[in-house]
Specification:
This protein is mostly helical and 354 residues long. It folds into 2 domains: 1-50 and 71-152, no CATH class; 175-348, Farnesyl Diphosphate Synthase, CATH 1.10.600.10. It has 16 helices and 2 strands. The chain has helices at residues 8-30, 35-49, 54-65, 71-96, 107-117, 122-149, 155-183, 191-217, 222-249, 252-255, 261-265, 270-275, 281-284, 295-307, 310-331, 336-351, and strands at residues 100-101, 104-105. Strands 1-2 form a two-stranded antiparallel ribbon. β1 (100-101) and β2 form a beta hairpin. α1 (8-30) packs antiparallel against α2, α4 (71-96) runs parallel beside α7 and α15 packs antiparallel against α16 (336-351). The two termini are 37 Å apart. This is Polyprenyl synthetase family protein. Its cofactor is Mg(2+). Belongs to the FPP/GGPP synthase family. Keywords: Magnesium, Metal-binding, Transferase.
Length: 354
């Protein structure tokens, strides 16, 4: 039960300590196996300790705003949602063939580089790096599930939390699968296709899952769960639309990623979907999705996207959707602290620069 003396800062400290404890336990267990396996857990611990912790903070803040009293269970659920995020990020990097994350080598890059330095052929070294990353993602995924399965709450809430996790992974995988399919460019992607993909890939695990877990642990009534589901999905799409704009026109020093990365990967976004209708697109279409795209070709592609009016279109859609979600939040029957939190969250997602 809740200790009245426990404040927001205390719960955040509890989360940091608990996540460190969970990972340290696995890291120590790995020492009984091979040295590379221990190195893999070292890498996972470093990776999980970084980042902005947006999702666990959302869960913990929402649990408090909804009057929740199960701080320890909420902290464990926050750890699980962060471990899920790490798992999906690792797998996403493998799918996108990225070697860098947050400005430094990711697990694929780190393990492949070490193998190269030790004399392994390039192809085998890269396969080793990818295999290490795939296994790392799997380990984080199962660890997240294990943490949720051990929540110290009554059985109905634990089962509800596990059902949320199962549906989140199922739907996020569908969104990622659709993202890869769209990048093949075997058929034209409509704006609706892109928005549906963003809804499944980003909204489900980044916003709906944290809010649903918080509400379930707080014992919120079904009406609150329904309202939060609708609001969370809309916030998730806003977040992804902003992410797509930053991926092409953001400040690399703030985002930590190249503004040519999405273009080289052939990532289907609303920017690209809109720009395709511009006659000038045909002049740069061969560059899109070309892993060997040069900087000058990338600049040309980015210029065509900008001059097509795509950024203005997406910005207007972000503004429109932010206003819509603000109305939904203010018209809801959610507690005042929850309303304030969500209003701030929408504004942050719509205007973020990193």
């Amino acid at each position: 039960m809740r200790d009245p003396a426990v404040g927001v800062d205390d719960v955040t400290a509890m989360f940091d300590a608990r996540l460190t404890e969970i990972l340290a336990h696995r890291r120590e267990r790995s020492r009984a196996f091979s040295a590379p396996y221990a190195q893999l857990w070292d890498a996972l611990e470093r990776m999980a300790s970084g980042g902005k912790k947006v999702r666990p903070r959302l869960l913990l803040d929402a649990h408090a705003a909804l009057g929740g009293t199960e701080e320890r269970a909420a902290v464990d659920a926050a750890c699980a949602i962060e471990l899920l995020h790490v798992a999906l990020v690792i797998h996403d990097d493998v799918i996108d063939r990225d070697l860098v994350r947050r400005g430094e080598m990711n697990i694929t890059g780190r393990f492949a580089s070490e193998a190269l330095l030790r004399g392994a052929p390039r192809r085998e070294a890269h396969s080793w790096g990818e295999a290490s990353a795939l296994l790392a993602g799997d380990l984080m995924l199962t660890l997240a599930h294990s943490v949720l399965a051990g929540l110290d709450v009554d059985e109905p809430r634990r089962r509800a939390a596990l059902d949320i996790f199962d549906e989140t992974v199922f739907e996020s995988a569908a969104g990622e699968h659709q993202d890869v399919w769209l990048s093949l460019r075997l058929e034209s992607a409509t704006a609706d296709d892109v928005l549906a993909m963003a809804d499944r890939k980003t909204a489900a695990y980044s916003f709906q899952a944290p809010l649903m877990l918080a509400a379930v642990l707080a014992g919120a009534p079904p009406a609150v769960l329904e309202q939060l589901t609708v609001i969370a999905r809309r916030i998730g799409v806003i977040y992804q639309l902003r992410d797509d704009v930053l991926g092409v026109f953001g400040d690399e020093r703030e985002t930590g990623k190249s503004t040519f990365g999405d273009l080289r990967e052939g990532k289907e976004t609303l920017l690209v979907s809109y720009a395709r209708s511009d006659p000038a697109w045909a002049t740069v279409a061969p560059y899109f999705g070309d892993e060997g795209m040069s900087a000058s070709e990338g600049e040309s592609l980015r210029r065509v996207i900008e001059e097509s009016g795509a950024p203005l279109f997406v910005e207007s859609l972000i503004s429109e959707r932010c206003a819509e979600v603000h109305r939904l939040i203010r018209d809801s029957q959610l507690p005042a602290p929850m309303v304030d939190q969500l209003v701030d969250l929408v504004s942050t997602c719509g205007a973020r620069t990193s």
